[in-house]
Amino acid sequence: MTASFKKQLGLIAATVAIAFSASAQTFTLDSLRQMALRQSKTMAISQAEETKSLHQQKAARTAYLPKVALEATYMRTGDEISLLNDTQKATLPQMGTSLLQSLGPDAAVIASQYPELAALFPKIGEGLNNAGANLVDALKTDTRNLSLASLMLTQPLYMGGKIRAMNQITDEARLIARQKGRQAEQELLLAVEQAYWQVVSLSAKRRIATQYVDMTRRLDDDMNQMIKEGVATKASGLSVSVKAGEAEMTLTKVDNALTLSRMALCRLCGMPLDTPITLEDEKLEELPPLQTAATDAQTDTTTAFAHRPELQMLESALTISRRQVDVARSDFMPQLALTGGLLTTYPGLTNGFEKKFKGTWAVGVALKVPVWNWGEGRHKVQAARADATIAALQLDEAKEQIALSLKQAAQRVEEADKQYALSMRNLSRADENLYTARQGFAEGVVVTSDLLSAQTAWVGAQSDKIDAQIDQRISRSALRKAQGILGF
Q: Could you report the per-residue pLDDT of 91-108, keeping only the tens digit for each?
C-alpha cells in the first residue's frame, strides 16, 4: 500500500467520521421520553381505545332520547287474500237472476195484477247482478303485491333503571381506558429510562475498558523492553500479553453491547435502529450524586393508592360489576315506552281496498311486564352479584400487592444508595492499591502478577461504581412507577 493511497484513505476515514459526528444528535432523557410517547404504537393503541370508549359513552347517552326509525317492506305472494269464498264470488254477480227465479209462479201472478211492474223485473235483476259483481270487485284485496312503510318514534319512559346503569358503565369504561393509557405511558417511560441509563452505563464502561486496554498495552510494551534487557522473564511477559488480549476482548464486548443498547433505545423512541444518537449524560465524566430520600415517604401507600392506574382500573371494574347487577335486574322489571308515527300501506286500507298508498298516524304507549320466567331473573342477578364480589376481592388483593411492591421498590433504592457508598470506598482503595502497585513495580519490589491484579481490581471497582450510579437512577424511576407518579 503506497503512502499516497494511505493518505487518501485517511482523509476518507476522517471525512466519514466528521459526517457521522455532524449527523449524530444529542438527546436528553426528557426529549427521548417525549419522543417515545409520540412515536410509540402502544400509546397510539391506548389513545384509540380511549377514543373508542368516548364514543361508546356518547352512544349510551342517546338511550335517553327518542329514536325515529323508517321501515319499508315489499312482499310478492302467490295468492291474494280473499274476503269471499269461491261460491260467494260466483253467487253475488247472479243474485238478481236468482231472485227472479226464486219467485217462480208468483212472478206471473204479480205481472198480471201489476202490469207496470212486469217491465221492471229485468231491470231489477240486472241491477242486482251488477251490484253483486261490483261488490265482488270491491272486495278484491290485490295483496299479491303488498307494501308497507312506517315512520315511528319511540321514547323510553321507564326501562327498569337499565339506561342509567349503562351510562354509568360506559363512564367507568372510559376511565378504565384512560388509566390503561396512563399505565402504558408509565411502563414506556420506565423502559426508556432503563434503556437510556443502560447506554450511559456502557459508555462509561467503554471509557474504563479503553483505559484498561491502554494500561495493559503500556505494560506489555514495558515488559517486552524489560525482557530484552534481561530484567524480566518471558513467562511474565506472556501473562501480560494475555491480559492485554483479554482487555481488548472486553472492549469489543462493551462496544457490541453499546451498539445493541443504542438500537434498543432507538426502537423505543420510534427512530430507525441505525440512527446515530448521543446522550447528554454520556458526555459527563462523572454522574452527579443523588440525595437519599426519606424511607417513610417512599413507602407511604396513600400516594400509590391515589395514583396507581391499576387500582383505579380495578375500582372502575368494581363499579361496573355493581351496575351490571342493575342491568340484570332491569331485564325482569316493567318497561314503559311512548310510541308514535305514520303508517302507510299498499293497497290502502282506509277507504276499502284501494290500489293506492294510504296511511294514517298512530300514538300509543307500550308496556312490558314480565310475569313468570322460572327464576331466570333471580339467577342472573345473583351471578352479577358474584362478579361484583370477585371484583371487590381483586381490588383488595391488588392493594396488598401494590403495598408490597412499593416496599420492595423503596428497599431497592436504599440498597442502591448503600451499594454506591460501598463502591466509592472500594474504588478509593482500588485507586490506592493501583498507585502502590505501580510504584512498587517501578522500584522492582512488586511482581507483575500483583500489578495485573491491582489493575483488574481497579477496573472492577470502576465498573461497580458505574453500576451503582445507574442502579440508583433506575431504582428511583421504579419507585416513582410503584407510587404511580412516573411521568412529566
A: 877 877 776 677 667 666
Q: Are the C-beta atoms of 162 and 326 separated by less than 8 Å? A: yes
**SS3 sequence of the chain:** CCHHHHHHHHHHHHHHHHHHHHHCEEECHHHHHHHHHHHCHHHHHHHHHHHHHHHHHHHHHHHHCCEEEEEEEEEECCCCCECCCHHHHHHHHHHHHHHHHHHCHHHHHHHHHCHHHHCCHHHHHHHHHHHHHHHHHHCECCCCEEEEEEEEEEEEEECCCHHHHHHHHHHHHHHHHHHHHHHHHHHHHHHHHHHHHHHHHHHHHHHHHHHHHHHHHHHHHHHHHHHHHCCCCHHHHHHHHHHHHHHHHHHHHHHHHHHHHHHHHHHHCCCCCCCCEEEHHHHCCCCCCCCCCCHHHHCCHHHHHHHCHHHHHHHHHHHHHHHHHHHHHHCCCCEEEEEEEEEEEECECECECECCCEEEEEEEEEEECCCCCCCHHHHHHHHHHHHHHHHHHHHHHHHHHHHHHHHHHHHHHHHHHHHHHHHHHHHHHHHHHHHHHHHHHHHCCCCHHHHHHHHHHHHHHHHHHHHHHHHHHHHHHHHHHHHCCCCC
The whole-number pLDDT of residue 95 equals 78
Q: Residue 375: what are its φ and ψ, rounded to 5°?
A: 80, 10
The model's pLDDT over 195-224, given as tens digits with 9 standing for 90+, comes to: 999 999 999 999 999 999 999 898 888 888
In 3D, which of 316, 485, 322, 300 has the Cα closest to residue 395?
Answer: 316
Q: Which is nearest to 366 in space by CA: 166, 158, 161?
A: 158
Per-residue cell: 28:
436528553
Between these two residues, 174 and 131, which has the higher pLDDT value? 174
Structural domain 32-70+159-483, CATH architecture = Up-down Bundle (1.20)
What's the whole-model pTM score? 0.78
Please classify residue 13 by burial: count the beta carbons closer than 10 Å to its beta carbon, then call 0-12 exposed, 13-18 middle and 19+ buried.
exposed
| pLDDT on residue 297 | 61
Residue 348 has φ and ψ, to the nearest 5°, of -70, 150
8 Å CB contact between 156 and 64: yes
What pLDDT, on a 0 to 100 scale, did the predictor assign at position 25?
82
State which amino acid sits at residue 169.
I
Domain ranges for the chain: 32-70+159-483
Strand order in the sheet with 145-158: 67-76, 145-158, 335-346, 358-368
| Side chain identity at residue 359, one-letter code | G
